[in-house]
Structures are given as structure tokens and as C-alpha cells.
Amino acid sequence: MTTQQYFAGTGRRKTAVARVRIYPGSQEVVVNGRTLQEALPRIVLQEVALRPLNVLGQMGKFGVQAKVAGGGVTGWAGAISHGIARALVEFDENLKPQLRRFGLLTRDSRMKERKKYGLKRARKAAQYTKR
Question: Could you tell me the fold of the domain covering 7-101?
């Protein structure tokens, strides 16, 4: 699989970072050396990860190889999706408007808010008692 020509893209979501390669003509999806079903057991997350290919109608035309680090499975799915979208733009610049229309090229900037001192969590404070 490494001898073929590939197009690369880096995707990020929360603290997960995915280095994605797409191979034209291939059909297998590999995440961290495992199949997509093993790496992302929930079907919803599998659909999120492959959304750029579904939107373009290119589902069986590309093989995907992703190496993901950091975060959890939800972050992984979002990072893979972002990486695939960027790799598809590298493959063909004309796909950019269509991917942008579905918001697939935008990095989801939502992160976990940090815990503040004096509080139990980011915003949860101890219960106030008047008397």
C-alpha cells in the first residue's frame, strides 16, 4: 500500500490529531493498523469519519490510512473526517467548495474548558447557603 501514490491531510478535533493518507483506487480503511470497525466501534462515529467521501459520492473510490493520536473515539472520528477532507482538496482543488458547503474543511475549535481554582469543575461552584 505504501508504493502507491497518495494524498495527505492532517485533521484535528479536540485533542486528537489524525495524519490521513488517501489512496485512489483502493477501498480499505485502516485506522492505527486496525479496520475502521475495530478502531471506531460505534456506527455513528464510522459515518462521521467517512462523511467527506459520502458527501462527494466517492465512497468506494479511495482507500484511507489514518494514524490518530490523542483524545478519545469521538475526537478520533472528527479528526479523521477533517483529515480526509483536507486530503481530498489536495487530490482535487475543485472539490473545495462542495466540502466547504458542508463545513468539512473547518476545524472544530470546541475544546474542554479548563478547571478554575476555587471551583469543583470548570464552572460548578459549591452550593451557596444564605443562612
Answer: Ribosomal Protein S5; domain 2 (3.30.230)
